[in-house]
Amino acid sequence: MLGVSGSIAAYKAADLASKLAQAGAQVDTILTRAATQFITPLTFQSVTGRRAYTDDDLWGSEAHVLHIGLGHAADLLVVAPATAHTLAKLAQGLGDDLLGVTALAATCPVLVAPAMDAGMYAHPATQANVAALRGRGVTFVGPEAGHLASGLVGPGRLSEPATILGQIRYLLTRGGPLAGRTVVVTAGGTREPVDPVRYLTNRSSGKQGYAVAQAALDAGAEVILISTVDGLPLPAGAQHQPVETAQQMADAVLAAAAAADVLVMAAAVADFRPAQAADHKIKKESGVPTLELAANPDILLAVADQRRALGRPKVVVGFAAETDDLLKNAQSKLERKGLSFIVANDVSAADAGFAVDTNRVVLLGVDGWSETLPLMSKADVAEKVIERVLRVLGEPAHMDADR
Ligand code: C5P
């Protein structure tokens, strides 16, 4: 159920409705009277293929049941954009229009995306309404800071439809099979400083790790995403811990893994770092420097030690990016690093591995199973990895921390 109120940002709600419909959601829209000044019900009907309601429907022949029916049928009530007035109405529980009575009848989770002038948002009355709604378990997305129609600059802009969509995805997946489980995912290539402006890194983009984080969220998990990546959108609901070096990643992973059910090490961790990072930028005039390297900790080996002591995480998944002898190398890593299973990919192929959106992998299990997957999107690979995680979690024999 999408409630649209009378902000200039109402036009963005049509994009949101369209994206929701494309993602397979059945979207019923309710426009407030003011919203119809900015956008028509026909716009929403056209992009959702379903009825869009206005206050005229409140007084029609089915009026006495309409709002109850709409409220009960919804899995989620999204109000976007929510004006200061609509926020006040929701906070007070006023039922003087179709959106108000439907919100009162709804028993589902509620997501609100405010949009208004920065001064109106900052007003103590609005802030009190936001606090009251939060106190009742309503989730907020935005408002974002930026240039507003009023000419002011500040928080008040409606969040982008993609951001709202991410929150919707998160709220609708909380009841999944990994509900109540914590999944730690690492992503990206570590950056090992040479001096204050230079570092050594690798070709990992973090795309496969971010896809695994999203798949774990979709299965209902709480996700801690430990990553070196700057440029990828963070999956909504993930708790992000930014790191740069292998040592920082090791510290973050060991701390998070102690309380986690699952660890997926998708990051490309540098095996070596400059032994001594220079304090100042190394100057060309000083001649060609010689870099001495030192070994980084192997995070998965450290996790295996900690896991023997703590019994957690129950499932540990590694990745093997290889250019030669894929299966042989992956098998030996699986055993040496004490993994539940390993995701082996041949990074020498142009359509798989680093940076691209597709991957071709083989999953190898500690007790001898293997699954060869065809070329597929990294999102699909991630789903397969999480499906396997579920299978391993579901079998008590695999929960043995001593493997
Ligand atoms: O031994 P190799 O680096 O090829 O193993 C790859 C797997 O081990 C990946 O899951 C990677 O995240 C992890 N790894 C690690 N610590 C390192 C190097 C790699 O945990 N220092």
Short description:
The protein is of the alpha/beta class. It is built from 14 helices and 22 strands. The site of cytidine-5'-monophosphate has 13 residues, from helix 12 and strand 17.
Summarize the structure in words:
The chain is of the alpha/beta class. It has two domains: 2-171, Rossmann fold (3-Layer(aba) Sandwich); 177-393, 3-Layer(aba) Sandwich (Rossmann fold). It contains 14 helices and 22 strands. It has an eight-stranded mixed β-sheet, with helices on both faces. Helix 1 runs parallel beside helix 3 and helix 10 (207-218) crosses helix 14. The longest helix has 17 residues, at 378-394. The protein is elongated, with a radius of gyration of 25 Å. Mean pLDDT is 92; it is low at 395-403. The site of cytidine-5'-monophosphate has 13 residues, from helix 12 and strand 17.
